[in-house]
Automatic annotation (TrEMBL):
<feature type="compositionally biased region" description="Low complexity">
    <location>
        <begin position="42"/>
        <end position="52"/>
    </location>
</feature>
<protein>
    <submittedName>
        <fullName>Uncharacterized protein</fullName>
    </submittedName>
</protein>
<feature type="compositionally biased region" description="Acidic residues">
    <location>
        <begin position="70"/>
        <end position="80"/>
    </location>
</feature>
<keyword id="KW-0964">Secreted</keyword>
<feature type="region of interest" description="Disordered">
    <location>
        <begin position="29"/>
        <end position="85"/>
    </location>
</feature>
<keyword id="KW-0732">Signal</keyword>
<keyword id="KW-0106">Calcium</keyword>
<dbReference type="GO" id="GO:0005509">
    <property type="term" value="F:calcium ion binding"/>
</dbReference>
<dbReference type="InterPro" id="IPR028974">
    <property type="entry name" value="TSP_type-3_rpt"/>
</dbReference>
<dbReference type="Pfam" id="PF18884">
    <property type="entry name" value="TSP3_bac"/>
</dbReference>
<dbReference type="InterPro" id="IPR059100">
    <property type="entry name" value="TSP3_bac"/>
</dbReference>
Amino acid sequence: MVRVGAIVLVTVLLAGVVFPVAGMSSQVNTASGGGADTPDVQQAQADANATDTDGDGLSDSLERSVYDTDPTDADTDGDGYPDGMEVRCEQAIPNADPLRTDIYVEVDSTQATTLSDPARTSIVETFENAPVSNPGDSTGIDIHLVTDDTNLSANGTVHSKSRPGVGNDIYDFRANHSEYRSDGYYYVLLTDDVAYNGDDYFVGAGRPEIAAMERFDSTKITASLFMHEFGHAMGLDAYQDGIDEERYSRTEYDSVMNYNGLYRQLSYSNGTDSVGRNEWQFVAENRTQPAIECVENGTCSSRCTQTAKVTVNG
């Protein structure tokens, strides 16, 4: 999607090292040149009130002439967010692109610090380089790591299973501190001590839509652990061949979900190794996704403005 040209505001309807052990899941644009004349504002407003075949909050006319999205598909890029929400809900899902897969993650911490800038950069770049195609002819995935609370109070070890009491399992933290759950965000907690299935030998645990992990001084170890546990949160589960196992070499199963790859790499498998599972394609098309609870008629009124920034393609 080319994001250049005139802009108007219109109303829309709309290794040799002893590594820490990670836990298992029990379950499964760079702008380019070009330009265009500013459309007549009255006409744009009229278009916004025209037919909306797919009910995504954008008129068919705007989808065809402005956004290059599919007026018969409410979610052109298939990332779980309706096109209208991606266009007009900057407060809820900042920098969303209706022609590119977007994944949003809220990152909280019981520590004074959160993910370091180098660790965040490593994670973001790994997703950007993902070998998956988008409707707008780009490749890769945009992961948005939204830092929220730090210095949260934990009642000792944070467990991967629900336990009596407050502040001692990952579900407590999501229920009491997640600010973006209704907007379809995954939830990741950084903390000092994690227990998987009651065992604090592990340093991370991933469950559907959520994960908890410890943070390390090494950028690579922290980023790799994040990718592993977040893989579990997206549905890459231990029952699948090779995941959370050491029986395959990295050549045979080239993934951070392989215990022989954990802490040594960040990427998921592209399906060309011996195991043959295209994990990146799964992430793009079939991952476990948090519900977007506030969607109504293709938008999220409590988290969206009534105006949308329209970039006219050139």
